[in-house]
Amino acid sequence: MAPTPRRTPPGLLLRGAVWHIDKVIYGKRICASTGTRDLTEAQALLARHVTEARRVHLFGEQREHTFREAATKFLAENQHKRSLERDERALAFLDPFVGSLPLQGL
After folding, report:
1. In angstroms, rounded to a whole number, what is the distance separating the alpha carbons of residues 22 and 9?
2. Of 77, 71, 104, nearest to 90 (Cα)?
3. Number of neighbours of residue 90 by Cβ within 10 angstroms
4. Which of 42, 50, 70, 97 could covalently link to 19 via disulfide, CB atoms 3.0 to 4.6 Å apart?
């Protein structure tokens, strides 16, 4: 007897060999790569995203943002700057030291 195929939960898509999240939660679309080939791991990441969205929607909790996320957003929004290459080098230098630290009180 052949093993029964596992059903994937709504919101997970297999693109190539990597699982991706594409789901709408409380009117906000979450679209991201899980970066994994393992379905169980992808389901855990999807559950984490759903829980985080639920906390924001129901309790007003805001997600912590990291320095790396802020730096990426800064570079994306300031493409017009003449000194963008210098800013990019400076942020790349700082990233190994403070990239994963949360932004607090800023």
Report:
1. 11
2. 71
3. 12
4. 42
Q: How far apart are CA 13 and CA 71, in angstroms?
A: 29
Q: Scanning the structure block, which residue is given the tokens 């991706």?
A: 20
Residue type, 98: V
Collapse the DSSP code of 25 into the 3-class scheme (helix H, G, I; strand E, B; otherwise coil) and give the result. strand
Where would I find the beta strands (DSSP E) of 16-101? Answer: 18-25, 28-33
Provide the 8-state DSSP code for 56: H
Distance CA 52, CA 15 (A): 24
Q: Give the span between the Cα atoms of 56 and 58, in whole angstroms.
A: 6
pLDDT tens-digit profile, the chain (106 residues): 445 456 778 889 999 989 999 999 888 888 888 888 999 999 999 999 999 888 888 888 777 888 999 999 999 999 999 999 999 999 999 999 998 888 874 4
Please give the single-letter amino acid code of residue 14: L
Handedness of CA 35, 37, 38, 44 (dihedral sign): positive
Distance CA 69, CA 34 (A): 17
